[in-house]
Every structure is written in C-alpha cells, then in structure tokens.
Amino acid sequence: MIRKLYKGERGQAMVEMALVLPLLFLLLFGVIEMGRIGYSYITVSNAARAGVRVATVGATDSEITSSVIGAAPSLNSASLSISITPIESLRLSGQGVTVQVSYPVQLVIPIISNVLPNPVVVSAATVMRIE
C-alpha cells in the first residue's frame, strides 16, 4: 500500500513547480525592470543637477545642454529632453534657473510592458539661484 501512495505522488513536485515558476519569473523580471527605471531616474536627476550648476554661473544654453548630456553618458542623448527656464536672455543674478530633464525608458520584458506604460518617462527638475 505504501508503494501505491509513493507512485501516485511522483509528479507532484513537477506540477507545483509548473504553477509557481511563472510567478517567480514575473517577480524576477519585474525587479529587473524596476531597477532599470530607478537607475534611469537617478541618472536623469543627477544630469539635471549638473546642468543647473553650470547654469548658475552664467553659462549659455548650449553649455548647459552639453553638461546635462555629459552627466548622463549611459543614456541615449538623442532621447533626452532638456528644458531650461528662463531663456538665456532673461536670466538675471539672484533669479532662479530651472533645468528639467526627461527620458523615456523602453521596457524590454513583454509581460511587464503590458502592465506598465511603454515607454516609462522619467523626469527630474532642479532649481538653483543664479550667482
């Protein structure tokens, strides 16, 4: 009798694994995608901060843009959206200058892209006073 019970439970582990494995992969791929989005957000935030630091000492818009692109070498510079306010001719000492940077993060895992919008746009804005 014990032999019959043993033979009847042979595929139990395989069935349990088949039920749990897709959930485990979904969790793993979700963590990977969230890590990529978090990394991109931190990079965009640092790039905005680097750009506004250059802007506070009276740099031109092209110098600010090149500083932002230089601070985010791992991101595709063609996809970066950089907004600087106020415009170069209206900046005065003591006034605040804002650099806003946006970047679309393309999701690579198809199942995750069904749950989240694809691309996920991360953006950061930094304001500092002009010296």
Query: Largest sheet, order of strands side by side?
Result: 1-2-3
Mean pLDDT reading: 88
Order of helices and strands: HHHEEHE
Number of helices: 4
Account of the 3D structure:
The protein is of the alpha+beta class and 131 residues long. The protein has one domain (2-129). It is built from 4 helices and 3 strands; from the N terminus they run H-H-H-E-E-H-E. The protein has helices spanning 2-8, 12-56, 61-71, 110-115, and strands spanning 81-85, 96-105, 120-129. A 3-stranded antiparallel sheet has the order 1-2-3. Helix 2 packs antiparallel against helix 3. The longest helix has 45 residues, at 12-56. The protein is rod-shaped. 16% of the residues are buried. The mean pLDDT is 88.
Give the topology, please.
Layout lengths: L1 H7 L3 H45 L4 H11 L9 E5 L10 E10 L4 H6 L4 E10 L2
Helix pairs in contact: 2-3
Brief overview, please?
The chain has 131 residues and is of the alpha+beta class. The protein contains four helices and three strands; from the N terminus they run αααββαβ.
Features of the shown structure:
4 helices; three-stranded antiparallel beta sheet; about 130 residues; alpha+beta; rod-shaped; about 55% helix
